[in-house]
Amino acid sequence: xxxxxxxxxxxxxxxxxxxxxxxxxxxxxxxxxxxxxxxxxxxxxxxxxxxxxxxxxxxxxxxxxxxxxxxxxxxxxxxxxxxxxxxxxxxxxxxxxxxxxxxxxxxxxxxxxxxxxxxxxxxxxxxxxxxxxxxxxxxxxxxxxxxxxxxxxxxxxxxxxxxxxxxxxxxxxxxxxxxxxxxxxxxxxxxxxxxxxxxxxxxxxxxxxxxxxxxxxxxxxxxxxxxxxxxxxxxxxxxxxxxxxxxxxxxxxxxxxxxxxxxxxxxxxxxxxxxxxxxxxxxxxxxxxxxxxxxxxxxxxxxxxxxxxxxxxxxxxxxxxxxxxxxxxxxxxxxxxxxxxxxxxxxxxxxxxxxxxxxxxxxxxxxxxxxxxxxxxxxxxxxxxxxxxxxxxxxxxxxxxxxxxxxx
Length: 408
Description:
Blueprint: H1 3-7, E1 18-19, H2 30-42, H3 52-71, E2 80-83, H4 86-97, E3 106-110, H5 119-122, E4 130-134, H6 145-151, E5 156-162, H7 174-183, E6 187-191, H8 203-206, E7 210-214, E8 224-228, H9 230-235, H10 260-280, H11 289-317, E9 321-323, E10 337-342, H12 347-355, E11 359-360, E12 362-364, H13 369-374, E13 383-387, H14 394-407
Parallel strand pairs: 1-11, 3-4, 3-5, 5-6, 6-7
Antiparallel strand pairs: 2-8, 7-8, 9-10, 10-13, 12-13
């Protein structure tokens, strides 16, 4: 992978600072910023009017949502709901879908998820919905499908879980889990926030009912997207004004509409991956969009595995350090979000020492509070988290290792 081509697309990387808190928010593509600026300067009008500029703005946003739909391989653009954050979109989903449920129906959440895909469901207890918790194996901190099967029954309406843990980095086998959930007659809702920056999101291949992720962690603006199967979205009541009907998908889930300039800027992300493909595979001319994305994310995953391996190896070999999650860089099993604790030092003490070296990493629970509590890591002030993405370099990783050797 041509790392220089990649880094040249991100203006923030020109400064002498190493960004390794990417799971908290990635750096933004230049193309995204240009799209935001272009929309605001030339098309900043309300949609739906008959005059030319309004028509043009509408066409541009329709095109942008179609491209987003294509990016995640949805069946149709109406399956794409745009919102301000993953937390809000999941909250909207819980409000709307729970209107179809009866007292005594059940939802299953996990103790490994970011709270964004937990609280919207546990709060339904007030409506008489029973909530069960699918807990990780306390030794491996992995979710086991055999444990899920014990929780499923004919009253289960939905299972909510993460695609990749924002602490462990572990990738859950979503397609296999979806098959189990659907066999029981329930729906599956996946938080892909920690997965989407690293791997291809193909909602049809995953066979999920709902899938949510944030663009500001995927090289774009502070905006999020929720995929939902059309027939599921259609039969729900929305939260928009009373005169919108069931057929007004996805607008009935977008009160006040989506943010125009930020939605339009998502084209910059898709254009980046398109140009990335042309740069890396110049001889491959007759390749459809889905295959292009598969090839690019395969390239990205290989690079991420290569740069994370030295760090994971160092952490494994250090006698006072314990990795929280899988002790492997295998791209099939994890993304390069790597968390650890020290035998004697608290996590904040390590991070605060690293701050002086102009490297951005982080400590804490990262809103996956139940996982930190159940793993007994609260007294450590959570974990030290190093979260890499494909614009990070081997040299940056080696620099971090050198600093860790100095301070611990």
